[in-house]
Design goal:
This protein has about 350 residues and is of the alpha+beta class. It has helices at about 30-35, 55-60, 70, 80-95, 170-175, 185-190, 260-265, 290-295, 355-360; strands at about 5-15, 20-30, 45-55, 100-110, 115-125, 130-140, 145-150, 155-170, 195-205, 210-225, 230-240, 245-255, 270, 275-285, 300-310, 315-330, 330-340, 345-355. It has an 18-stranded mixed β-sheet that branches. The radius of gyration is 27 Å and the shape is elongated. The termini are far apart.
Length: about 350
Amino acid sequence: MKSAGDAEFSISTSTLSQAYDYQLDGGLKNLAGLLVDFADVSTVSNVDLFAKRLGWADYIELFSRSAHSELNKQTKDERASKRSMKSTLKGIYDKIQPNVTIVIDTFEYWDKIDMYNLSTGVHFENANTVILEKTRFSLDQGRVKLEASVDISDPHETQFSIEVNADQISLADLLPKLDYFNVKLLADQAAHSDDIDIDIQIEGKIHDVDGLQANEIKGSISFVSKSYNGIAGKIDFQPVLEGDKMIMHSVIDFSGSPVLFNDFFKNEQFFFEDQGRFIAHFDFTGDLHSLDHLIAEADIDLDITNGAVLYEEADIVFELTDVSTTLRGDTADYVLKMKSDALDRELTATGVIENISELIYG
């Protein structure tokens, strides 16, 4: 119910950057707290922003404006814009403690990604913490849910935590647009699933000019695909101190159909059949450059159950009950259990392979 000292507003305008129209509807409770510095009540606002289309440049523009002349005179470089945005947000909290609802039909992240039917809520947990909640949007393929917390207390860097749940995402479409996150391992892979579900939890620090620093984040990424050979996995990563510098430590668990090995080994005589399942565990410390680098440097435990290998030249299929392999450095210890129909029994072989990289890469 509206009472004395309250106000309502409705504003229709457009952005300076790209001249996109948007509308602000809302209300102010305890207006005296905004108009009079010594008022003993705080102004609280609820604001709804609606737009058919907005872009990232428009977003930066909206939240970088300030009524203070010293901010208006700042150069419009990236550092100044982000510092201005933080100062503006802190000033907004001090004055009106807003709860903001945003609904945008199409949101452009530069020229890389379009987000459709975006809705989100924004509020301040305290003077330094902005909460992004119940964020939902669609991509060209797939749907995304997002929750985030951002610390705006530092003028030069931003602490954050983020949780993302994405369903039926096309990595084949999405990863090139994001330059594969500058991870050669992702760019090296010829095929990417087009129906993958992903859960991401990350926290860390972004430098407002230099961007995200790989050794200053930690978290986990889980993924599963129902169609691309049943792949599923989880990556846990966090920085660790080695000597006098921080480097990334990653633990990767990955599973799927053994037929995936055919693309990796590119063997011309032996081929894994599409049966059974493999589970691989990687323990790796350092900067991850490629799949070859991961195989060469990580401690790896690999297990294949109920698989089969075709020896094409003789047209013979070997049934593999279980294959357990441990790779440390360039040495592999293995235990192989294979079913023999001729002998009506299971055969077991154990051994050690030195210089296994020669076997893998030739």
